[in-house]
Design brief:
CATH class: Alpha Beta
CATH superfamily: VSR Endonuclease
Shape: globular
CATH topology: Endonuclease, Chain A
Radius of gyration: 17 Å
Number of strands: 5
Distance between the termini: 33 Å
Length: 158
């Protein structure tokens, strides 16, 4: 198999990657708007909590992260190792995985319930129905379960 080359120059690729924000992403906004419309109130990107969770529900002592599958190394159909600059990406994604694990542990140790909504739950051929996804989050918020992980459906589409 021939090695694939990036169609952008290193400078152009660097500029594109640097412009990708970590806050207020499209998947995060979908979740926030949906929960807000259903009456949920929350704090955003709390600086005083480990990992600055995307959405914080202080009254429920719960936090929610909305993770992109590439950046956080999710093993779903949306995650593919980049074909260029492999050493950089392996190091970057591995560091993210380590940081995510440490953040979840620190939050749990501090008594917080931790939820993660993966990007594949919101996009791609295995995405979930948004209403069902929001109901699942609400059930978790209303319950006592310590953790939540919402990802895309597995298996074949009908």
């Amino acid at each position: 198999m021939a090695k694939r080359h990036d169609v952008l120059s290193r400078k152009q690729r660097s500029h594109c990657m640097a412009s990708i924000g970590g806050k207020n992403t499209h998947p995060e906004m979908v979740i926030r708007r949906g929960l807000h419309a259903r009456g949920w109130r929350y704090v955003l990107h709390s600086d005083n909590l480990p990992g600055k969770p995307d959405i914080v529900f202080p009254s429920r002592h719960a936090v929610l992260f909305v993770h992109g599958c590439l950046w956080h190394g999710h093993g779903c159909n949306l995650f593919k190792w980049p074909l260029t600059n492999k050493a950089f990406w392996y190091r970057k994604i591995s560091q993210n995985l380590h940081h995510d694990r440490a953040t979840r542990q620190a939050l749990r140790k501090a008594g917080w319930r931790v939820g993660v909504v993966w990007g594949c739950a919101l996009k791609g051929k295995f995405r979930r129905d948004i209403t069902t996804l929001l109901v699942n989050i609400e059930h978790w918020l209303d319950g006592k379960q310590a953790t939540l992980a919402v990802m895309g459906r597995s298996g074949k589409l009908n």
